[in-house]
Amino acid sequence: MESSNILVSSASEVQRAEFYKKTYSHVAMAVLAFVVVEYLLLTLIPESVIYQMVSHRYLWLGILGLFWLGSTLSEKLVFAASREKQYMGLGFYVLLEAIIFLPLIHMALMYSGGEVLKQAATITLFMFGGLTAVVFTTQTNFSFLRTFLVIGGFVSLGAIVVGAIFGYDLGLWFSVGMVVLASASILYQTSKIKDEFGTEQYVGASLQLFSSVMLLFWYVLRILMRSRD
Q1: Are 108 and 228 in contact (CB under 8 A)?
Q2: Which of 211, 204, 212 is nearest to 87 (CA)?
Q3: Which string of DSSP letters, residue by residue, matches 120-140?
Q4: Are 113 and 49 in contact (CB under 8 A)?
């Protein structure tokens, strides 16, 4: 695998096409796996347990902390030399996303019977497609967004932690800001896999994109739910 792992930017058109095909098919499979796992969790986990996840602020803060630790482990695994470890990392991350989304998805289903979920998924899909097209059609290097993403990530994390501890509602504009942050992340990650990844790193590339898509979906869904209140 080492000998064939050349930079995507230096690969032939056929090699690049194969890399993108594998990357985006893995993103699609991760989304499908998320839907299946989420359905199973909603079916198997009692409502009382789901409510307890968010009703106790310190429990939710602990879940967020475990999600962060698990995400860090997943990112290390998807870039391991072993393909088995790479898929283990991607699968583990899908499970983490399904768990963290569980209360929000449950509320959305109770709120609109799934209609708002369809709307959020459609908006997220079109935004992801549009942002991806911007990267590939303009040939712009979006690496300059890294500083914005790092600072924005720390600020948003701090706001989420403070909100969880003191029970603050971060409000609509925070969700709008996070949609902007997630959109910038998609631009940055798409540009990065195009210019910096190797042709054998498609599992890691798919995780990077999947995580940004799920962040976007989370806040699009929150905005839609809030707009109906």
Answers
A1: no
A2: 204
A3: HHHHHHHHHHHHHHHHHHH--
A4: no
Residues sharing a CB contact under 8 Å with residue 208, sequence separation 6 or more, in sequence order = 189, 192, 193
Report residue 196: phi and psi, to 5°.
-120, -15
Phi, psi (degrees; rounded to nearest 5) at 3: -65, -30
- Asked whether residue 67 carries a pLDDT value surpassing 90, the answer given is no
Q: What is the spatial distance between Cα 201 and Cα 64, in angstroms, rounded to a whole number?
A: 27
Dist CA 116 CA 98 (whole Å):
18
Instruction: Identify the helix (H) or strand (E) that includes residue 167.
Output: none
Q: What is the pTM of this model?
A: 0.88
In the three-class reduction of DSSP (H, G, I as helix; E, B as strand; rest coil), residue 7 is classed as: strand
pLDDT of residue 228: 63
Residue 13 to residues 8, 9, 18, 64, Cα–Cα distance (Å): 9, 10, 9, 41
Instruction: State percent of the chain over pLDDT 90.
Output: 42
Sign of CA dihedral 203, 93, 177, 105: positive
3-state DSSP helix/strand/coil % of the chain, to nearest 5: 85, 0, 15
Segment 148-159 shows an average pLDDT of 84
What pLDDT is recorded for position 1?
A: 43
Between 112 and 138, name the one with better pLDDT. 138
